[in-house]
């Protein structure tokens, strides 16, 4: 059972999502909040698996609430669901620790699938903004490979992180480095632990911030 908390300052939006969750096997409502501050308290009190988070709310916004929720040990994963797909909100949400970013005009089935994807530990971004993110990265000059070791990880893990940043799957990483798929998976798992990354989306962000990755494939 995936326990879901709903955070939105519009009661009608919450009501619609509440009905959707109630009618979906495997999902359970953990609680609701109408502001970012209420969301932080709700996450601490109910410990949901996923928080479906709006961005623009009175007082503390969804980005700051996401940052506070994901900073705590054993924190819920945050799926941002908003009317606004502005790039500033996308970058802000992902840097704050969100595991996914969807927009409210998506089909209900896609929103439900997004909740399950995030609960499973993966990351996702709405197709309507993925293209812009790739174009943004592709427009930047490709950084030179980092020669200094990244603190806390081995040289091989640094190579794996660079390939994750390019968008390669575990199987593709294995082929690129001439290692087994199981070894590639183990390297990625160690990167999650060593870099405190919540999912693959955040490994990609870390790779870019460290100058290890060029434009995504």
Automatic annotation (TrEMBL):
Keywords: DNA-binding, Phosphoprotein, Transcription, Transcription regulation
PROSITE patterns on file: HTH_LUXR_2, RESPONSE_REGULATORY
Organism taxonomic ancestry: Bacteria, Bacillati, Actinomycetota, Actinomycetes, Streptosporangiales
Limits of the HTH luxR-type domain: 146-211
Pfam families the UniProt entry points to: GerE (PF00196), Response_reg (PF00072)
Transmembrane listed as a keyword: no
GO molecular function: DNA binding
Protein name per its UniProtKB record: Transcriptional regulatory protein LiaR
Record-listed 4-aspartylphosphate modification sites: 54
GO annotation terms (biological process): phosphorelay signal transduction system; regulation of DNA-templated transcription
Gene name, Swiss-Prot/TrEMBL: liaR_3
Domain Response regulatory, chain residue ranges per copy: 3-119
InterPro entries, per database record: CheY-like_superfamily, NreC/VraR/RcsB-like_REC, Sig_transdc_resp-reg_C-effctor, Sig_transdc_resp-reg_receiver, Tscrpt_reg_LuxR_C, WalR-like
């Amino acid at each position: 059972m995936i326990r879901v908390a709903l955070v939105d300052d519009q009661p009608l939006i919450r009501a619609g999502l509440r009905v959707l969750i109630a009618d979906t096997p495997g999902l359970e409502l953990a609680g609701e909040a109408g502001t970012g501050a209420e969301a932080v308290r709700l996450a601490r009190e109910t410990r949901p698996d996923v928080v479906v988070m709006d961005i623009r709310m009175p007082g503390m916004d969804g980005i700051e609430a996401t940052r506070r929720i994901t900073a705590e040990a054993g924190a819920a994963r945050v799926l941002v669901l908003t009317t606004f797909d502005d790039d500033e909100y996308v970058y802000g949400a992902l840097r704050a620790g969100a595991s996914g970013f969807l927009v409210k005009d998506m089909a209900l089935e896609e929103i439900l699938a997004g909740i399950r994807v995030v609960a499973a530990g993966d990351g996702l971004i709405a197709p309507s903004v993925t293209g812009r993110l790739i174009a943004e990265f592709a427009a930047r000059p490709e950084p030179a490979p980092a020669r200094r070791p990244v603190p806390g990880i081995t040289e091989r893990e640094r190579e794996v992180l660079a390939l994750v940043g390019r968008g390669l799957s575990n199987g593709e990483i294995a082929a690129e480095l001439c290692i087994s798929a199981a070894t590639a998976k183990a390297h990625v798992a160690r990167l999650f632990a060593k870099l405190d990354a919540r999912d693959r989306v955040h490994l990609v962000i870390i790779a870019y911030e460290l100058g290890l990755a060029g434009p995504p494939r």
